[in-house]
tRNA pseudouridine synthase A
Amino acid sequence: MRRLKMIVSYDGTAYSGFQTQPHGNTIQDKLELAVKLLTGDTVKVVSSGRTDAGVHARGQVIHFDTESRIPAERWAIAMNSRLPDDIVVLEAQEVDQSFHARYSAKTKTYAYTINNNKFPDVMRRKQELHHPRPLDWEAMREALRHLEGEHDFTSFCSARSTQASHVRTIYRTRIDHLGDRHPDYQGVYRIFVTGNGFLYNMVRMIVGTLIEVGEGRRSSSEIPEILEARNPMHEKLTAMAHGLTLWEVRYDSGDGTAT
Amino acid sequence: MRRLKMIVSYDGTAYSGFQTQPHGNTIQDKLELAVKLLTGDTVKVVSSGRTDAGVHARGQVIHFDTESRIPAERWAIAMNSRLPDDIVVLEAQEVDQSFHARYSAKTKTYAYTINNNKFPDVMRRKQELHHPRPLDWEAMREALRHLEGEHDFTSFCSARSTQASHVRTIYRTRIDHLGDRHPDYQGVYRIFVTGNGFLYNMVRMIVGTLIEVGEGRRSSSEIPEILEARNPMHEKLTAMAHGLTLWEVRYDSGDGTAT
């Protein structure tokens, strides 16, 4: 039995999220079907973590076990020809049995993209939250910095969470104005958050709160109090799914990855 | 009666092209319907030129006449709230009756985007031609420069064309490697062609020929002979519609545009 690790990107627009569901059209289903079409085997695909309906991935990581002898370097093309065109395998490699897409992950980066222009960009409408009202991006950067470090993120987690611990560490945050480098992205901002793990709806609730700060309805200095309150923010603050992308998952060099 | 000029962008993926067709779901139909929903009037929308099924527009220009007294500056938002989300009016202004979206146009720029990476970009798959085999972009730039100037473009025009004259002028061409400015566009190239008008399938046949040059199956120095032959290239050279975008239409300052 071999274990394969793959990096997968997908446009989540047409799916009910990553994880298999009773009535759902999910990314996991499509990946498992592609493996079955390719090898004849039924496998269980394990991801670094589920993504919700409408959420995209630039670098989701999965693993599964297979008896197939197809060389690792041929898997990406073979999978892609059996996948719908909104799911693309970018890389495949054989890894040690000790590698686990979820448990071996050291950091995850999510990106949330906001188009702050008067009108949406028609080509990117499924990947950008359109927010035509002005936002104070400096205040938002300041608010975001207050979230760096180890905190109990109960305030930024769905009240329905059943996780034992809400303590997570955010290592790095950044807000880029994409228009600084590329004229087609004038007025488009991308919020990056890198951490050791994220609670249910955590990034979307953080972004919803940043938008309140950007609109001047909250001060960035309120963030430490909000964290300390350990009281889930109102659900309506959850920013829409389509602006969110699982950007990158990192594993350290000692994770059993055979290169 | 007032004449309104609008700049419209659209994702052509879901449409049978710009122009109204007997059984077609077209951009023109959607625009005329939005005007009807807004004003109650049936108008005829005139564009700078039709775009084919699957072709996009960043800056299509239209005009139509209306009795409505809605101020010009309120039209864009009013139209957008009545249009599907893959069509966006970016700008509206009142113009003189002498302005005509098609006949007053001085230059048009088309852009064709090619993703030359091993795998397609999942988010941009409907706007980029994926061409994984290596291309010689310098040879393609050279070939494209041979097309600048006034020429009879019969060789780069569908054999089905019924136009009286195939003489057109290409003022400027350019191929940008978008990855030079934006890391997310590594390996993605955009071909710009600006001219005083384009024949049916002209840009797509030019791009198909450039790809042959880029693959080394033709030399860039053959372009002058191809032009002189005035013999339509094979239809299969027509590059796929989805990589093409009507980028910009320009009118000169004496075109009756009231600003």
Q: What stands out?
A: Chain B has two domains: 2-104, 107-248. The first strand of chain B starts at residue 2 and ends at 10.
